[in-house]
RNA sequence: GCUGGCGUAGUCCAACGGCAGAGACAACUCCCCUAAGAGGAGUUCAGUGCGGGUUCGAAUCCCGCCGCCAGCACCA
């Protein structure tokens, strides 16, 4: 029986939302104490880069986690849900170049705008703990960590081939290289040898492969595992014929194919190229090496390109076959992987096969799938098999041969089993202004000298001309560059590079616990109460870089004695990406979809709810607001339900009570799993049910619905809570609990199938014994008619669901 | 090219191996007739990309193909 329509006040989100947002700030509702009688729970969401263009993707990233954090609060936890800004970065410099605004001014303006957006979103953030990475109080600890890592040998200066944009005259981060082109000016990026600072993340390669005890999505674990790229094999050396003891060291994952190594290949950058090349071949080799060096990285590493190379004229000796084998230079061998040299086994490697075909080199079968020797190979055989033409190893399974050959190499003193990684050390230097200055002074006498701890922070000078040209802007600031050597006191120059901004975000979660502390990067007393982070959320695009760096930094700090745990984050969940008409949103594309119009028209609660309703959060979505009406109407229905007198108290309605308890169960489970869309659907379903209910069951059901909805739509629920006479804030109430006995449906419809076809649907009390269900099903006249005297061969009863009768 | 993920009404999406539909958009029909929001009630709409297999029973598990998306892309 529906309740008669009453005259109720209009639902006006604009005024309700503004009112409560102010009130929550005034009453400090979201300020989280470090100590309470509730268990602490650290819920972290990746902080944003203050880019200035707020789009619906930001809401997607922040509104659902906010709901999840609020849920944890209602479930009785003391939840730390902080926010801050990843405030250093290249965009601020670009703004300075394009619009003549100082990066600091531009960043401040954007942060102010975004704080306002977060407020309008209705987030339950404890802003007292805000962390901003571009402030000296923050980045001094980047410098402190740098010095600590340096002392420990985990930060070092070395030469590397980096991405260089010839037009902007600066190195670029990998993520600033789009398809081999500079993100800013679209110039083709080249590799350039430069001396840079690195963090020794490779020390932790094996540990970073371990995820024990972590609740992280499979996809992220796989991405990180592939990125680290562990390969087992052997490192072996072949001597160069006729040389003064020179040898070529190489790594192989297939030592079992060593008898098939009919030539060797060096990367063009390999140091031995210069020494072993015969005079007859010198000119040709030099030309090839020079050409390779000038080639763009993207072109050079393209797998589609035809293999090229030149003969050095030199020979190595395959110590296993005893044969002389030619040494080539080819750019399909990378100087940056392994030792920059390979034994080429054309019979069992596609690349070597292609190369051998082109240069008419010998292709020999040494692993046979069937154990028989074959005269010729039309294509390389990559798989495992039986070793053939392999001297004493002939007849050995290749899987076994790998280890056996590696051991044999060790015995002969020419090699050993070995493991290598694709992961490289983390290049942290940037020839940019808007970042953390590297706390190093270069002295003619003493070399690279660390800035003493008591001189930190090395502050970023404010007055800098930013042109985007001519390398590090800091190098042109005499007052910054010129200093004295901390060791000898003589005039010296500061390092003018700044740190990769991923350094900033590699430890920020430790700053939130007490961002004001100025004696350490982290307040350890407070940190002990919160860390490690219980729940982290963010975009899957950070699956490798940020999340890997963060794990590395935690392990490094642990080894410095600064942290008592191994991993920064116990549970990680990611959201998918919001695109617009199939394309990523960006200012340059001009397709940024802003939330402002929707907030104005429907309110923040509607937009929050819509973000969660669009589909599974992990999937992301193509932005299309056409469904927003539906959630808005739902909030209207809740509003009406909340403010309508339910009519006279009446006997309980067991069906309504059951629906209420089932909804509690469903929403609780779905919210815990980040299945926001189905949780919202369940609440819509309950609202539909309650509209047709009355009396006590209805009014209690409405009260429950409002509580369940509170994390999703914090403003309307707060308003309804108070109007309905609730004490305090709804957001401080306890999450509803369900009673399984009430939630269980009392009556179920049992479907009866005969040979797979539905023949009857019989209502029965839930929980009936199988035998009884079977008896009733067989007694059905329709079933009897279908059976027509036939005897069932088999009857399957699935409790409370189905009876399947098989006759044949 | 390799690896992974995904293909369900016109659309977005649900569905422990058990009646394909939870919720919503759109469309259509009717109602409400201002006091009010882009109101309410209802109807229509797919047999789950294609082909096999397993099973009493498959959207769900397995195999092959097609399409889309993402990641990696000469990693020795």
List keywords for this structure.
alpha+beta, 808 residues, Isoleucyl-tRNA Synthetase, Domain 1, Ubiquitin-like (UB roll), 26 helices, RNA-binding, Isoleucyl-tRNA Synthetase, domain 2, single chain
Question: How does this structure look, described?
Answer:
The structure is a single chain. Among the domains are: 230-421, Valyl/Leucyl/Isoleucyl-tRNA synthetase, editing domain (Isoleucyl-tRNA Synthetase, domain 2), CATH 3.90.740; 626-742, Orthogonal Bundle (Isoleucyl-tRNA Synthetase, Domain 1); 745-806, Ubiquitin-like (UB roll). Helices cover 36% and strands 20% of the residues. It has 26 helices and 34 strands. The strands form 11 sheets. It has a 4-stranded parallel β-sheet with strand order 2-1-26-27, with helices on one face. A 4-stranded antiparallel β-sheet has the order 6-5-9-19. Strand 13 and strand 14 (324-330) form a beta hairpin. Helix 20 (654-672) packs antiparallel against helix 21 (676-691). It binds one RNA strand of 76 nucleotides through helix 7, strand 11, strand 15, helix 11 and strand 30.
Q: Short summary of the structure?
A:
The chain has 808 residues and is an alpha+beta fold. The protein has 26 helices and 34 strands. The strands form eleven sheets. Strands 2-1-26-27 form a four-stranded parallel β-sheet, covered by helices on one side.
